[in-house]
Amino acid sequence: MPLFDLPLAQLRQYTPAVAEPADFDTFWQSTLDAATQSPVLLDLRPEPTDLRLVDSWDVTFAGFGGDPVRAWYNRPAGVDEALPVIVEYVGYGRGRGLPHERLTWPVAGYAHLLMDARGQSGQYGAGDTPDPHGAAPGGPSPVTRGIMTPEGYYYRRLITDAVRAVQAARALPGVDPRRVVAAGNSQGGGLSLAVAGLVSDLAAVLTTAPFLCHPQRALEITEVGVYGEIVNYLAVNRDAEPAVRRTLSYVDGVSFARRANAPVHFGIGLRDMVCPPSTGFAAYNHYGATVGGPPPERTMHVYPFNGHEHGDATQVRRQLRWLADVLGEETTDRSDGPKLSRALISPA
């Protein structure tokens, strides 16, 4: 698909005024305060797998309203030390899947908690967490569920789950609670930004092609993917636009990004019509704006010829190297290591 958004030079300077509710902070503080009334870690049990190098546990923690939320906890087998933990959030329509599906982080030497997305499994991957709060006015899909009010909106629940996942990760055995990283792509990238704005002591944030950033603009320039579900809802519910826009202002990733203080690593494809690049750049350029003192470290990788897939494996490699540097982890340079002899690699 062709370039459709602002030129890159303008994107790098794009800091739009974003409508932010006056009670944004009190809304989220009261929401999270209510969630903390329940003990966070509900169940932890070893998960048998055929993996020799990774140990897995099935985790259940209390999310929004005390609802049980499922997650996989993986870590390198045979490692007893307390490790940094990557709390990862999945993309739209995905669930946590099976414990062996996402192994990059534990193979790289990190603990890894992969949160299920309540009520979303079946489109791209399986999940095990229902969403029992479906009565608020809105549409049938997760992104429109309860969208007529901030209090009943689906993403109020999912963002609360995401914050509680960080709290659950800190309670897990073998985790260094001072080194928690929020990570995700697309919907997961939006959740990692929300967590960055609501949790003040993260070690780092990894976000690519983040969803729910500057949604007011996204609705004007794209109807692809998840934003298309909101467009379709408004095409039928023609008088709902003011209420929908008000609700979206409470979950805007730009507002969360303004409150974040952890080092952050972004990745954006300039041909992304699912999460338009200007919406992600808005979050990047506003990141840490309300934080006193020196601004947090920000890194952006741009992929001019990619869409919603952004940098894919190249981006993950960049994340690994950046995160090792930020956390002060040792990395191994294998360029001078032992080489296979030609006898071993020559054809028979």
UniProtKB/TrEMBL annotation:
<feature type="domain" description="Acetyl xylan esterase">
    <location>
        <begin position="1"/>
        <end position="325"/>
    </location>
</feature>
<feature type="active site" description="Charge relay system">
    <location>
        <position position="272"/>
    </location>
</feature>
<dbReference type="InterPro" id="IPR029058">
    <property type="entry name" value="AB_hydrolase_fold"/>
</dbReference>
<dbReference type="InterPro" id="IPR008391">
    <property type="entry name" value="AXE1_dom"/>
</dbReference>
<feature type="active site" description="Nucleophile">
    <location>
        <position position="186"/>
    </location>
</feature>
<dbReference type="InterPro" id="IPR039069">
    <property type="entry name" value="CE7"/>
</dbReference>
<feature type="region of interest" description="Disordered">
    <location>
        <begin position="121"/>
        <end position="144"/>
    </location>
</feature>
<dbReference type="Pfam" id="PF05448">
    <property type="entry name" value="AXE1"/>
</dbReference>
<protein>
    <submittedName>
        <fullName>Acetylxylan esterase</fullName>
    </submittedName>
</protein>
<feature type="binding site">
    <location>
        <position position="92"/>
    </location>
    <ligand>
        <name>substrate</name>
    </ligand>
</feature>
<feature type="active site" description="Charge relay system">
    <location>
        <position position="308"/>
    </location>
</feature>
<dbReference type="GO" id="GO:0005976">
    <property type="term" value="P:polysaccharide metabolic process"/>
</dbReference>
<dbReference type="GO" id="GO:0052689">
    <property type="term" value="F:carboxylic ester hydrolase activity"/>
</dbReference>
